[in-house]
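Weekly sync notes, structure subgroup
Attendees: PM, AL, DS (notes)

Item 1: joint prediction request from the bench team. They want all two components modeled as one assembly rather than separately. Inputs as received:
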Amino acid sequence: MQTVTTKSLCERAASLLGEGTVAAVLGWKRGEFDYDLTPAVFTAAEELTEGFIYNDFSGANLSKYLLKKTREIDGKILVFLKPCDTYSFNQLLSEHRFDREKVYAIGIPCSGMADIQKIRKIVGEGITAIEACENSLLVHTLYDDEPISVSCAEVLTERCLNCKSKKHVAYDELIGDEGEVLTSNRFDEVEKIEALSADERFAFWQNELSRCIRCNACRDACPACTCEKCVFDNPNSGVQSKAPGGEFEEKLFHIIRAYHVAGRCTDCGECSRVCPQNIPLHLLNRKFIKDMNETYGEYQAGEYDNQRAPLVNFSLDDPEPSDVVKGGFDRA
Amino acid sequence: MQRIGVFVCWCGSNIAGTVDVHAVAEALKTESGVVFSTDYQYMCSQAGQDIIKNAIHEHSLTGIVVCSCSPRMHEATFRKTAAAAGLNPYMVEIANIREQCSWIHKDMLSGTEKAIILGKAAVAKVNLNAPLTPGQSTVTKRALVIGGGIAGIQTALDIADAGFPVDIVEKKPTIGGKMAQLDKTFPTLDCAACILTPKMVDAAQNENIRIYSYSEVTEVGGYVGNFDVTIKRKARYVKEDICTGCGLCTEKCPQKKVPNEFNLGMDNRRAIYIPFAQAVPKVATIDADYCTMLKTGKCGVCAKVCTAGAIDYNAKDEFVKEKYGAIVVATGYNPISMEKFDEFAYSQSKDVITSLEFERLTNAAGPTSGKLLRPSDGEHPHKIVFVQCVGSRCENCAEKGKEYCSKICCMYTAKHAMLIRDKYPDTDVYVFYIDVRTPGKAFDEFYRRAVEEYGVHYIKGMVGKVVPEGKKLLVQASDLINGKQLHIDADLVVLAAAIEPDKSARPLATMLTASMDTNDFFTEAHPKLRPVESPTAGVFLSGCCQGPKDIPETVSQASAAASKVIGLLVKDHLTGNPCIAQSNELMCNGCSSCERVCPYGAITYEEKEFRMPDRTTKLRRVASVNPAVCQGCGACTVACPSGAMDLNGFKNNQIMAEVDAICKM
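Output from the run, pasted for the record:
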């Protein structure tokens, strides 16, 4: 359960709308089910009371929506940002992707988001409603008379289990207490894959990526994928026709995408959250982050709003390519 | 649709030896766009070029693929050929089937197969080529020479002599470099100072030469013809223009215990000092690490005795920005550290010295005023052992030494041995060597004189160990020719330490984007045909920064580098490279990735109006490339996530077409 209530956020948003500080509010509303909250724009207090929700399923990172909305809407936009979202927010500012002046950012605390897949594993199918109470979720299903209680900690998403920071790195206003940067075990899974042999690694990714249906959800949700025109949508790029090629379908799509966001990915985990096939796409990005940390020193994309990522930076201390010998087939 | 002609060169037997050139020409005939394909013995010859010209006319060719040697060799040649026949020179592509194919394959079958693939890739690219027209840029008529040793001085003098202004940046307080520390020079035995110092004075007095001594290059921007360089003038705490070089301060300074680096620490100097009598500029410098006044604020003796009032304790580092058309690197060398060579007891005994220390010991201006005395007790040594190749030609000791031959040691050791026997015939001299290498005019004669006329004992074999024992140094060595172990109780051991590029060279190479080899020597554009040019346009190489060299060779290379610089500076305009980056504004995100990786600062951003899908117009931040500054390195095109940035002549789709052509096989 979240420490701030939907009601309190609604009130604050309504007052900012009312006094004219902002022209619109970027938040979350209910989708088809309780657990598929979706980003939404609210322009009036009534809309907020009717639709705005902040709960354990407000996983969507709203920073990316600022790109489009700041261009569409005249006046300031209020955006609610969880700690990890603020990193994407800063990264987008580093890349000059929207006008900071057009945004009023409110940092809100997050005690971790729930993973519906994990809940399903416990309660089974037929979920009709989910209520939050204290440290657990009450899940109503078609088949059970009484709601089933599951502990929030038990059903945290992978990215929240490995939360890298509870600190807001950008905001105009903060609701709740300021958190801290955490030490996480987010590279453990990467290390496990690194330890595999080249063949095993290939088999692992073949198994995962071959499930891809090329719905583009990962790309569309990714706050680093903000190109005016994506290379995969550009027939002149020469990349489009390559994406489905190779030993298993869609391999190149994900590899190219990982390269494109390398150094810019804040590890917000949206790619894996939105994947309908549950492909652990964030592991590709984490491998890049890990390699960059090891090669160029610790770097967290989005920590500040005007950073030079190691891959687009240059210093006399940079290692020579010959010094970086790890990786590829030689790795045991 | 292009009309492409393919021309396969045999390069005599260089290519035809391992590649079936007829088969290549035949196979490429059926490629898309190819209307003519042939092969010839020497495509670069006049007759070969005529074949190309005639084919362009006869078959109305719009593009050309020459399957031959590396484009670095003859791309320019064939571009000229095409231009002479009325074709845009950038419609020419080279498929390198020599360096990248015939020379590395032994088997005709695989060689031919690969040559065909490379040819197909080039054809695929030409299909997408478009005519390009180069722009022009101006040339700043001033040269920069980095390093003020004999190499830098000679280069600067020659450039200045041709009438161009030139600046020398030297990190030490005086120019002169290593040569100023040497005693006599082989093979003619003239004194180093006698031939060097007049040149130093010439440089100082030449009105075209400006010397930035005690200075370092900290930043390099721009490109050939228009380099922007920042020079740090380190605070010397003495006003250069006021100091008369009288030397009074250096006599009165109470801080007497500063190791004198000019004599390699074998004696001491003061905290305020002039490195040596003939220093240029002859100006005192305060060593901030030792000066009591600068460290504690209490002393000020030098300011009191200076009648000119040149001392300025409040001096700060100054940064000068200058524009140059050409840059010459002359950063020189240093002997490697002997610390890791414990077997020779260098760190244990004062009487084990390096050859450069030996130079100072025999120099009249050195710590012993030229008398050969043992550093430990000041006695005259009667038995001296020279050890060659200490750290040179180290095949299995890369962590201590160098794999290469330092080239100068055989000759200077012969010189040292000869000079000792000449001055002190009572002294026995042994030289232990792997090989004696004396290629060079009058070099072998010189070495033979040492052996035959001066009776130096040359022993083939390496010294295994030097053990200090009492006043002696016990030298254990093997005599390979006689198959014997030798034990010599020497008074002095001289180590011919390997030489390595100065430590400042590596960061400088990075600043200049000039390439280096694994030993940190600068790489030349072509080892035989362009030995004094770096592959980076406008950057030239002089002296030991490019490889070990003796003085005659250094001076020749220095003059050669100067002639290349002069050739550049006499031009009013340089024809640019049309293969530069271009941004597609419709796709540009304005994310700054390209700007951040551009080493030339060629990319700026502007707010442009764009029509949105709803027919309103919005301002959007987009990149724009300054064509005069862009050097076509392509870094931006790979940094650009959306592919908005593209490089003319090497467009993303051209590269992709080449890759596709190769992968289709």
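Discussion: Chain B touches chain A at residues 507, 510, 586-593, 596-597, 599, 605, 612, 618, 621, 639, 641-644, 652-653, 656-657 (CB under 8 Å).
Action: AL to compare against the crosslinking data before next sync.
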